[in-house]
Structures are given as structure tokens and as C-alpha cells.
Design goal:
heterodimer, A: 344 residues, mainly alpha, B: 284 residues, alpha/beta, six-stranded mixed beta sheet, four-stranded antiparallel beta sheet, 9 helices, binds adenosine-5'-triphosphate, binds magnesium ion
Chain lengths: 344, 284
């Protein structure tokens, strides 16, 4: 808890101004850790074998910057596709239709069950294995539409597809857990208002599930950032890791170029973490405990804890004896004020 | 109900005079809700064993019964949150959940589509014990949600209407608050406003005050009472016997899956069935 500025506080005549507890052990531990960190920093900066001048020289190299662009594109595109697919898979998973459930189960089983590297190799070979894609009736010669696979499945597409399909299987489980965490009373209240399944999912369930889904998806996105370095299996050779490797092999200086890659991965990760915290804020709306406006005049105490938390059933035998006098009186008193409002 | 001289019934009959717009008790025929020999089983658990009940337009029916007797189940059946095992429920003269079709010369029941069921639900407003407000929306957004996305009302129109409904439950100044920022009683009043915004013909209340601290019960009962005074058809499951006495036109006691006793509010003070007597002795 941070202390708030003076004008933000209530005027309490006997405000307590106590001395804080001394955390000696914490302070000592802090000093030791700080010293260790300094030593590490010194080692990193002064070690001549790290060749910081080379790092600096290649940090903004055109191929490296290009690689960052591709890495970002691969990450964003594959995650976007994966998110859309995963929501579909998660909804299918809880569908009443057994075929949809089965497809979803199989998809998740297959893409989680095989190495992503293997999948990327497969997507790279796809146009060799299946040279022509067509849409028709199975086991007949009827064909509505067909296309040369090579023309659509370029290396970049194969890379994005490979990453996205693999990721969708993991995200589907995250999304499913998020959906299941939403109280069933929410969907019931929505149904009672005449809302239909699709609308309930979109307006009521998913927005609440997002609060649970976003942190692990942020995690997955940062993971994906680095998994993109595997697309050389396709082979796709423009992303950051491949670009720095290529330079390192050319000038025989692997270490400084690994540092270049690391620095950029860290920069992107920092940005992603920032975006994640923004998203968490957005989807946490209504869930964080907010201070009620100071001016708000309430008939009841700002018993915020209420939420759904205090909603534990208080009914039962003990509760039954409430039609006491005071209760009825409050009803009547309340009614008097109510009637004026109601006549409008 | 006039045979009893106690004050509760005096108030009750005066309520009838307060609402001139309310349809008379015996309305021109079609009951608002007709429950005919309704059975409901969860697997082997036979919860409702032939319930018969008629609710006339503009009247308030209070359903009493011990915990686990199937009161919630009955309300949920009316709103199709559960499916019937047997019997029939009509809302406004229309059978809920099914239609009659002819198959091979036989009269069969055909399940309604999701769309048709959603349309039937629009006639009914429901208020839950645990409020079930949408926590990611403000009070105003909660009330606007269905009018905008189900009824297709314009945002501006829905907002004006929502503000009116919130004012009606005494929460005009809480429109921009999220549910977590409201007390239990305020949340339940928002939930009532949310249901009212869809212009339901019948309101179903499932223990609307059971999750509330005692000092907040009154404000919710107050809103319900004024709704009743306004002529709303209501079915209320509650343990608030005082409310039943003062507001109900019909009191129904359910136990063991059947209606044990039913009548005007005077049966609360003069129960005939032993099981009802025991229940009241326990609750009062
Ligand atoms: N979805 C369900 N699956 C299985 N059993 C259920 C289900 N819903 C309710 N029941 C059972 O049906 C019985 C009646 O439940 P119901 O909730 O209708 O009781 P109630 O009269 O509303 O009780 P209370 O006063 O405690 O709310 C209970 O025994 C309950 O356990
Ligand atoms: Mg119940």
C-alpha cells in the first residue's frame, strides 16, 4: 500500500502515525542481491570477449531490423489465427454435436501431441506431398474448385500456418478453462433475457473469460516470439534468429550476434508485457475493487465485498424467521419513498 | 380473502384498490401461467410429481416450501432453464418448449428451436437469488444489454429506458457503477430493472432476498411490492412470510413434489395441512 497524498485522505482527528516495523533481514538480502547484480553487470560490460563494439555495430543492421519485422509478423499473425481457431475449438469442444466435439478433440490431440518442428517441416513439404488442393465430393470426380498448392502455400504462409495450428491446440485448452470458469448463472441470466447461444458467448461469457485467458495467452505470445526461430525448418529464413546467425557465420563472431538477438527479443518481450498488462486492465473492468466516488450518497454502506462473494445463501431454517416487525417497517418506509418514484 | 379481519388482509385489499389498471383477478379467460400435471426428474431423483397451478394476470403468487422441495426447479421450468419431464406449462395460453405436430397419424410434441424458445422467454422476466448481474458491465449497461442486443432497440432509446428503469428501483445515481461497487440490495434492484427493461408480462423471482444481509432485504421487497401495486403478474419464491401475507393474492405450499396447500394469503394464518403447519411453525 502506498500512502496517498494529503488531500485524498479523510480528515481523521486521531490519525495513527506509527513507526514501521524494521525489516532488517530484507534490507540485508537486498544489499547482497544488489551487489551480485552489480558484479554481473560489470562482468558483462567489461568482458572483452563479448565484443560490445560488434554488438553495437550490428544492432541496427538492415538484415537484423528486417528480421525483427518478420519475427513480429510471424508472431502476431500466427497468434491471431491461433486465437480465432482456439475459440472455435473451445466452443466446438462443448458443443452438443458429437462430430464437432470429436473434430475438436482430435485437433487438440494431434497438434499438441507432435513436435512443432516436425509440423513445420511437414508444412514446408506440403506442396510437394499434395500439389493440388481441390474442393469436391470425397471419392468422386466431382470438383467445384481447385488450386496449385505452391501458389498459396509460400514459405511465409507455411510458417505462419504451422505455428498457428500448433498454437491453437494449446490456446484451445486455455480458452476452454476460461469459459468454464465463468459462473453458469451468467449464461442463465442471459438466457432468461432472451439471448441466444452465440450472443451469450460473445457478449457475456467470453468477455469474462478473457480476464482468465489473457495472462496465459500473454505467456504463450512471448513463447511464440521465440518459437518463430524454428521456422527455419520450413525453411523460412528471414526472421531475427536466422538473420543474426547468418551474419555471425559470415564474420565468425557468434557471441556478439547472439547478444544482438537477445537484446531485440528482450525489447519485444518488454513491449508485449506492456500490452498484456493493458489488456488485463481492460478485461478486468468491473472486477477490480474500485473506490466509490466520495460524493456518492448511498442508502447502504459501500459494502463492496458484496460482489457475488457475500452472496452465499443465507437461507434455510435459521433465516426463515425474518418477517419480524422491523423488517416490515422498513418495507413500508421504503415503499413510501418508492411510490413517488413509481408514479412517474 | 375478506373473511379475515386482521390488518394484513386489510392492507391487501386496499392494495387492490390502489391499482386501477390491474386486470381483475378472474381475467377474461387465459391465465398468465398454467402449470398442468408437471413432473420433473433429475435422473432417478423425482423432484416434481404432478404440480398443478394457475396464475391469473395481474396477480401475485407466492410459492413456499422447504429447501429442496423443487421451488426453484418449478420457476426454471417455466422459463425453460430446465426441460420438462412430463406435463405441460402454458404462458399466456401458449405451450412452452413444444408444439403439437402430426406424425404418422399421431399427435406428437415437436421441440421448439432455440430462436422460438428465446422468443418465449422474452415474455418472462427472471430475478435470481444470486443476482447474476454481468460483472463486466455497469448497472446501466446491464439494463441496456437485452433491449439493444435482443430486442434491437437503438442505443439512445435503450439508454433512456434503462435510466427510467433504474430510477424506478431507486438507483438513478448508480447507473455508472459496476456490480462489484454496489451493495447486495442495490445489485438485486439492478437485476430487477434489467428484467423490467424487456417489458415482461410475468416476473419470476427465485428467493430474491435470500442472499442479502437482513438490513438490505427491505429495499428489494419494497421494489417488488410497488411492482405488484403496478399490476405486474408475479411468481415469487421466498421465505419472507410477511411479504407473502401482505402482497400475495395466492399462496402455494409445495412439499414432496406436490402442491400441499394453496389458497389466498389467509392460509398462512390458518393452515389446514399438517405439513404446512409444521413448515410455518419452523419459519415464523
Ligand atoms: N441440475 C440438477 N441436477 C440434479 N439435481 C438437481 C438439479 N437441480 C436441482 N436438483 C435437485 O432437485 C431438488 C429440488 O431443487 P430446487 O433447487 O428446485 O429446490 P428449492 O425448493 O428451490 O430449494 P431451496 O429452497 O434450497 O432453494 C433438490 O434435491 C436438488 O438437489
Ligand atoms: Mg431454490
Amino acid at each position: 500500500m502506498t500512502r496517498k497524498s494529503k488531500e485524498n485522505q479523510a480528515n481523521i482527528p486521531n490519525r495513527i502515525n506509527a513507526l514501521p516495523v524494521r525489516h532488517t533481514a530484507t534490507v540485508v538480502a537486498g544489499i547482497i542481491v544488489a551487489l551480485l547484480a552489480l558484479m554481473l553487470a560489470q562482468g558483462l560490460v567489461t568482458n572483452p570477449r563479448l565484443e560490445w563494439n560488434v554488438v553495437w555495430k550490428y544492432l541496427f543492421n538492415e538484415n537484423v531490423l528486417n528480421g525483427i519485422g518478420w519475427t513480429l509478423w510471424l508472431t502476431v499473425a500466427s497468434m491471431l489465427i491461433a486465437v480465432v481457431l482456439s475459440v472455435l475449438l473451445a466452443v466446438m469442444r462443448s458443443s452438443a454435436n458429437a462430430v464437432l466435439r470429436g473434430v475438436s478433440w482430435f485437433w487438440i490431440w494431434f497438434f499438441r501431441g507432435t513436435p512443432v518442428y516436425t509440423q513445420l517441416v511437414f508444412w514446408g513439404l506440403f506442396s510437394v506431398l499434395i500439389p493440388k488442393l481441390s474442393l469436391g465430393i470425397p471419392f468422386t470426380s466431382v470438383e467445384f474448385w481447385s488450386v496449385d498448392t505452391r501458389n498459396i502455400l509460400t514459405a511465409a504462409v507455411a510458417a505462419i500456418l504451422g505455428l498457428a495450428l500448433n498454437e491453437s491446440a494449446y490456446l484451445a485448452e486455455i480458452v476452454r478453462a476460461g469459459i468454464e470458469a465463468v459462473d453458469t448463472g451468467q449464461a442463465e441470466a442471459a438466457q432468461a433475457l432472451g439471448m441466444r447461444r452465440g450472443l451469450i458467448m460473445r457478449r457475456v461469457v467470453l468477455p469474462q473469460a478473457m480476464r482468465i485467458i489473457v495472462p496465459p495467452v500473454g505467456n504463450e505470445t512471448i513463447g511464440m516470439l521465440k518459437t518463430t526461430s524454428l521456422v527455419m525448418a520450413v525453411p523460412f529464413s528471414l526472421e531475427l534468429q536466422y538473420a543474426t546467425d547468418a551474419i555471425a557465420n559470415r564474420i565468425y563472431k557468434p557471441i556478439p550476434l547472439l547478444l544482438v538477438a537477445c537484446i531485440w527479443y528482450l525489447v519485444i518481450t518488454t513491449i508485449l508485457m506492456f500490452l498484456q498488462s493493458r489488456l488485463e486492465k481492460h478485461f478486468g473492468k468491473g472486477f477490480e475493487q474500485r473506490q466509490l466516488g466520495a460524493g456518492a450518497s448511498g442508502t447502504s454502506p459501500a459494502g463492496n465485498g458484496a460482489g457475488t462473494g457475500s452472496a452465499g445463501p443465507t437461507k434455510g431454517t435459521g433465516k426463515g424467521g425474518t418477517p419480524d416487525q422491523t423488517d416490515k417497517d422498513t418495507v413500508k418506509k421504503y415503499n413510501e419513498t418508492m411510490m413517488t418514484g413509481l408514479n412517474a | 380473502m375478506s373473511t379475515h379481519g386482521n390488518t394484513e388482509n386489510m392492507q391487501n385489499s386496499s392494495r387492490d384498490t390502489v391499482r386501477p389498471s390491474a386486470p381483475a383477478g378472474a381475467h377474461s379467460g387465459v391465465p398468465a401461467v398454467a402449470i398442468k400435471d408437471v413432473h420433473k426428474a433429475f435422473g432417478a431423483l423425482h423432484v416434481l410429481k404432478g404440480i398443478n397451478l394457475t396464475v391469473n394476470p395481474g396477480t401475485v403468487t407466492v410459492i413456499l416450501g422447504p429447501s429442496g422441495s423443487g421451488k426453484s426447479t418449478l420457476l426454471r421450468l417455466i422459463n425453460q432453464l430446465e426441460t420438462l419431464s412430463g406435463g405441460e406449462i402454458d404462458v399466456d395460453g401458449e405451450m412452452v418448449g413444444y408444439r403439437h405436430v402430426e406424425r404418422g397419424g399421431q399427435d406428437r410434441l415437436q421441440e421448439l428451436t432455440e430462436k422460438e424458445i428465446a422468443a418465449q422467454r422474452e415474455k418472462l422476466g427472471m430475478v435470481f437469488q444470486r443476482f447474476n448481474l454481468f460483472p463486466h458491465m455497469t448497472a446501466l449497461q446491464n439494463v441496456m444489454e437485452a433491449p439493444v442486443h435482443v430486442a434491437g432497440v437503438s442505443k439512445a432509446e435503450a439508454k433512456a429506458r434503462a435510466e427510467k428503469e433504474l430510477a424506478r428501483v431507486g438507483l438513478a445515481d448508480r447507473a455508472e457503477h459496476y456490480p462489484a461497487e454496489l451493495s447486495g440490495g442495490q445489485q438485486q434492484r439492478v437485476a430487477i430493472a434489467r428484467a423490467l427493461a424487456m417489458d415482461p408480462e410475468i416476473m419470476l423471482f427465485d428467493e430474491p432476498t435470500s442472499a442479502l444481509d437482513p438490513e438490505l432485504v427491505g429495499e428489494v421487497l419494497g421494489v417488488m411490492r410497488s411492482l405488484a401495486d403496478g399490476g405486474m403478474t408475479m411468481m415469487v419464491v421466498t421465505h419472507e412470510i410477511g411479504f407473502a401475507r401482505e402482497v400475495a393474492d395466492q399462496v402455494v405450499f409445495i412439499d414432496g413434489g406436490v402442491v400441499v396447500e394453496a389458497g389466498g394469503p389467509e392460509i398462512i394464518d390458518n393452515p389446514t395441512e399438517q405439513r404446512f403447519k409444521d413448515f410455518l411453525a419452523h419459519v415464523l
